[in-house]
Design brief:
Length: about 300
């Protein structure tokens, strides 16, 4: 057994299949499959249950997984110690809700990438919770702390949201006089049965039961508001990217939510720890900068 075979094992376990693992390994699926077979032969154990749906870890594979991850962490730490320039390299994938992925992570990750040009950063933007347990990403940004001991969460930053509409819409329909008026207003929001976290159910607090213009994506909601389709609850950090939108009832409709930084529990390699530090600092600074632009 050698590290290169363990690297293939980890990639296949995280992708739950050969096709998903092959691009990250820069191997074709058939070669990755042969490497897994070689590892299984050397260990005398079947590591994966094969099916048309993909590769699932067997009991033997589950026993090997933490040992392979420990070897990966030790190797990464050794490489970091020998890197005189202190540059990060390899691939790191971040999962995030699409509002964060659209309006914060491009600036933050762009800045990190400019300092660490050998690092490949992948942003997985999903209108749902990213599943770290299935290795969809190396770390995730969420709007609620996970309720499982297999994951570790730290409070990343609070952020604000406001009621907003386009100047054209306000000229045609007027400004609501109070939050109670939202019950009968033309609202933009999430598709009700696709709200994946209770923290995102903004309109329920105002008694809104009908959402005539809805999307599961924050960016679509923002563009609906820009197009004059109605009133929306929007992130303050997104407003600088949405000219033509103005805040409505800013002293009466002001929401605060929290981003959480979620990683796998247990030891992490030095490379991921360094990246997490850079991401944490960059996110906090960028939220503060953008929110300061809108007051």
């Amino acid at each position: 057994m050698n590290w290169d075979d363990l690297r293939v094992f980890l990639a296949v376990a995280r992708a739950e299949g050969l096709s998903g693992a092959a691009p990250r390994l820069r191997l074709d699926p058939a070669t990755a499959g042969r490497r897994i077979a070689r590892l299984e032969q050397s260990l005398g154990a079947v590591l994966f249950a094969r099916s048309p749906q993909g590769y699932t870890l067997t009991e033997a594979g589950q026993r090997l997984l933490p040992r392979a991850e420990a070897a990966e962490a030790a190797l990464a730490e050794g490489l970091e110690a020998g890197d005189g320039a202190g540059r990060l390299s390899g691939t790191i994938r971040i999962g995030a809700p699409d509002g964060c992925a659209n309006y914060l992570l491009p600036q933050v990750c762009g800045a990190i990438g400019s300092v660490h040009p050998d690092l490949d950063i992948q942003i997985l933007a999903l209108p749902r919770v990213v599943n770290l347990s299935r290795r969809e990403a190396d770390l995730a940004i969420t709007v609620s702390a996970p309720a499982t001991q297999r994951l570790s969460a730290e409070r990343l930053s609070d952020y604000r949201l406001s009621l907003a509409a386009s100047t054209d819409w306000l000229a045609r329909h007027g400004t609501p006089e109070s939050p109670e008026a939202l019950k009968g207003a033309r609202m933009i929001g999430y598709i009700p049965d696709m709200i994946f976290d209770a923290e995102l159910d903004y309109l329920a607090a105002f008694g809104v039961t009908r959402v005539p213009m809805a999307s599961n994506a924050v960016s679509v909601q923002l563009n609906l508001a820009r197009a004059g389709a109605g009133l929306a609850i929007v992130h303050d950090f997104a407003l600088p990217a949405a000219p033509g939108l103005v805040r409505v009832l800013p002293d009466q409709v002001r929401l605060t939510r929290t981003f959480w930084l979620v990683t796998h529990a247990g030891p992490r390699d030095a490379r991921l720890d360094r990246f997490t530090t850079l991401l944490r600092e960059g996110m906090r600074a960028e939220i503060a900068r953008l929110e300061a632009l809108v007051g």
